[in-house]
Design brief:
Blueprint: H1 3-7, E1 10-12, E2 18-27, E3 30-35, E4 40-44, E5 60-65, E6 73-80, E7 83-86, H2 91-101, E8 111-120, E9 123-131, E10 136-143, E11 146-147, E12 150-153, H3 159-173, E13 178-184, E14 191-194, H4 200-211, E15 215-224, E16 227-233
Parallel strand pairs: 10-13, 12-14, 13-15
Antiparallel strand pairs: 1-16, 2-3, 2-5, 3-4, 5-6, 6-7, 8-9, 9-10, 11-12, 15-16
Helix pairs in contact: 3-4
Length: 256
């Protein structure tokens, strides 16, 4: 697949964004932050993940201001070790859809149409891609946790994510093409691994799906305050199990 086509997949952030400093996380979808000038404001967090290494007191963020009754904006970016990381879990669907329009994905050349939130059994799958030879069902995943150069997903147990992978595997075993695609919303990942330490059931369901023939892809992303651009694909690997070396105690995260 042409690198030029991949690089054409770009989704902008809304503007203008305002700089904030993170203070507290009262619940999974709410961040309290301080605006320039000292005003403390509630912000919507469009991501239910723990993101413990990102959501730290005093961290710099960028938010899109809004005027909802309960919040004053949406937190979209957090600065981490000198780079911007997207915390918007809605972005993978938008990136996949933009790549479908541009036929940037290796599986998209014969896609004639697609549907988001496709009903399937008792669940909803992110995308149903319609092709002459039959549908392809695809789940997208957002990842923003990287250790060293290895992206890890999930950062907490996800029964819903595991259930979807099991469903995709069952479909593939019946001859229906399925796939899962990760977008790592930062630019320092060189590989991705389903994290068996965070959720062994999810990791097991993923590798069982791959063994059954499920498509699996992962892409890194360049993240700036202007938007997210897809970089090259990165390999999906199985994280080696073993003893972890001693590491300094990290700062206490903003827990909900």
């Amino acid at each position: 697949m042409s690198q030029d086509l991949l690089a054409s997949v770009f989704v902008p952030f809304p503007s203008p964004l305002e700089e904030v400093v993170l203070l507290r996380r009262p619940n999974r979808f709410l961040i309290l932050a301080r605006r320039e000038g000292g005003e403390e404001v509630p912000l919507h967090l469009p991501n239910s993940g723990r993101m413990e290494e990102l959501l730290l007191p005093g961290a710099r963020g960028l938010a899109f201001p809004t005027h909802h009754p309960k919040t004053k904006g949406t937190l979209l970016l957090v600065e981490h070790k000198g780079r911007w990381v997207s915390v918007d879990a809605r972005m993978p669907n938008r990136l996949l859809e933009e790549g479908l329009r541009r036929r940037a994905w290796p599986f998209a050349q014969d896609v004639t149409s697609w549907k988001r939130e496709a009903a399937l059994s008792s669940a909803r799958i992110d995308f149903r891609l319609d092709r002459a030879q039959g549908p392809l069902f695809v789940e997208t995943k957002s990842c923003n946790r990287v250790e060293g150069s290895l992206a890890l997903f999930p950062d907490a147990p996800t029964q819903r994510g595991t259930r979807h992978l099991v469903l995709l595997r069952e479909l593939r075993e019946k001859g229906i093409p399925t796939g899962v695609i990760w977008f790592v919303q930062r630019d320092d990942a060189r590989a991705l691994s389903p994290d068996h330490k965070a959720d062994p059931s999810f990791a097991r369901a993923f590798w069982e799906g791959v063994a059954a023939g499920m498509m699996a892809l992962a892409y890194g992303c360049q993240v700036t305050p202007e938007g997210i651009r897809v970089l090259d694909s990165i390999p999906i690997v199985e994280r080696k199990r073993g003893r972890e070396g001693d590491a300094p105690r990290p700062p206490k995260p903003l827990r909900p």
